[in-house]
Specification:
There is one protein chain. By secondary structure, the chain is α+β, with helices and mostly antiparallel strands. It has one domain. The chain is 60% helix and 16% strand. The protein has four helices and three strands, in the order αβααββα. A three-stranded antiparallel beta sheet has the order 1-3-2. β2 and β3 form a beta hairpin. The longest helix is centred in the last third of the chain and has 15 residues. The protein is globular.
Length: 68
Amino acid sequence: MIHDNDNTLAADLLRGADAIAEYLGFPRRAIYHAVTKNHLPHFRIGETVCARKSTLTAWISEQESKAA
């Protein structure tokens, strides 16, 4: 049985460095570098780097407020 929350989660999930790079507008290599240095909020499912759009958006807002 699929719930509305499942669809919301699936829509919020970015699977792989390519998807994260496309969402953020950075090269894939930059995503791997940021993940290696732990400079980007992420998690792994097996070997795949993943992130939530909502988490990245909140993190970017936090970075902006720190810089101001």
